[in-house]
Design a protein that fits this description.
It is a single chain. This protein is mainly beta and 315 residues long. The chain has a single domain, classed as Beta-galactosidase, Chain A, domain 5 (Distorted Sandwich), CATH 2.70.98. Helix content is 6%, strand content 45%. It has two helices and 23 strands. The strands form three sheets. Strands 7, 8, 9, 10, 12, 14, 15, 17, 18, 22 and 23 form an eleven-stranded antiparallel β-sheet that branches. Strands 6, 11, 13, 16, 19, 20 and 21 form a seven-stranded antiparallel β-sheet that branches.
Amino acid sequence: MNQAALTIETIEYGGWPNCIRVSNGEIELVATTDIGPRIIRLGFVGGQNLFKNYADTLGRTGDTEWHNYGGHRLWHAPEVFPRTYAPDNDPVEYVWEGTTLVLRNSERENALDKEMRVTLSPTSPCVEVAHRIVNRGPWPVDLAPWTLSVMAPGGRAVYPQEDFRPHPDVLAPARPLVLWHFTDMSDPRWTWGRRYIQLRQDPAAITKQKVGFLNRQGWAAYLLKGEALIFRYADDPGATYADMGCNTETYTDPDMLEVETLGPWTKLKPGDGVGHDEFWTLAKLECGPSDAEIDEKLLPLALAAGRDRHGPRRG
């Protein structure tokens, strides 16, 4: 099936027989429909998968417990057990709306409908993923849409700091930095730079790390083996964010690294929905960890990616 310059086909992937592959000839993505909604592969055609897949969960369906299949998924904050870990092990509804793949499923345990609208550009290495959560229950629910991209091991995440301004030119604080009980700021996987925070995924590490922060710059990136995935997402200056004010979080363990973004904290009345969008750009890029090299090579791509394409959505 061809629409514009896109190739769209049903394929077997990792033991799931009914995955949807979308390609524009330069990049490709694969979404599961036997479970999910999940985007399980993203990369250049014939190249590495920038997302992590777990060998022991590939092809599994129908289990009663939640599994980390990897890839990109939609959750809702705050993270609490068991609400957050509602299984996504059953088939999803999917439809085509023009050149947009729409994936839908319900968390029956939480009376929430989840939707991803995935649009691959026919002419550039870009993907827009619009996420939406709707309250189907009889009472209001407090939550924030929360998207997690489980990245393949061995790479490095880059998050921009707020613009440096010397004391006493600006006396007000610039952003919250939120730590978890297991955060170790002395861990060598962290680089706390003047212009960037970086977190390196290390398969030899034995501990887990996580931080969150309010990212007014609206972008993040993951670099792996000469390629970069750049995330753009909205910041709403008037919004309240979960986890002590985070619209960005990052986590790593010996298997992977997560780039996580969050939409505004919302009280969803019955029937109401909230959206949170990400715009992804893939690039071939060799970039070292110094601020100067990131400024020269990564920052121009990040500022150009997905500019003015999306914002917070409600209703």
